[in-house]
Amino acid sequence: MRCKINEKNEKKSWASIANECIDKYNETEHSVTGFAPAYLLEGKVTSVLPQELRHPVDIDTWVKDRKEALERTIKSHMYNKKLFDKGRKQNEFTIGDLVYIENGNKINRKKLDNLRIGPFQIKDKISNTIYRINTGKRKDTNLYHITKLIPMENEINDEEDNA
């Protein structure tokens, strides 16, 4: 987009430049699927060949290519999920458990601030990943994601290991 905006001879509105960039993106082959989004969605051939040299794509080939793109997308998703889940611990909490809460963002935290606060009691399980914690404060937004919660038992075990 920066190159389009900074072209010397042409001044265009931001909206028209954005549309041009979207069109170019949709005509570019995706690394995971192996096909351009415009081809997968509309059957539009986006080859760099001139129109006279292109072969029309029949509907059976297009459907087969879409299925192949879906399979590649699922395979890529499963690979990324495997990488994400590799070092992740799955904690399951119940109402009444005592947990520590990670104290804010690592970037915004001061050097000597506590790494975690608590322990606090779990008040309610909203979903598989969101819990309401009784922090002793009145605000209604005492909702925390499971990745911000540390079980109290793990904290005790960590301290014993470090001693």
* Cα radius of gyration in angstroms: 26 Å
Instruction: Assign a percent range to the helix content.
Output: 25-40%
Question: What form results from the Cα inertia axes?
Answer: elongated
- Helices and strands, in order, run as HHHHEEEEEH
Biggest β-sheet strands, sense, barrel: 5 strands, antiparallel
How far apart, in Å, are the first and last alpha carbons?
55 Å
Strand residues, percent: 15-25%
Output the number of helix runs. Answer: 5
Average pLDDT metric: 81
Number of strands: 5
Number of structurally distinct domains = 2
In the predicted model, the low-confidence regions spanning at least 5 consecutive residues are none
Q: Can you tell me about this structure?
A:
This is Integrase catalytic domain-containing protein. It comes from Leptosia nina. By secondary structure, this protein is an alpha+beta fold. Helix content is 37%, strand content 16%. It folds into two domains: 2-85, no CATH class; 98-162, no CATH class.
Q: What is the strand and helix layout of this fold?
A:
Elements: H1 2-5, H2 14-26, H3 37-42, H4 59-85, E1 98-102, E2 116-125, E3 130-134, E4 143-145, E5 149-151, H5 152-162
Antiparallel strand pairs: 1-2, 1-5, 2-3, 3-4
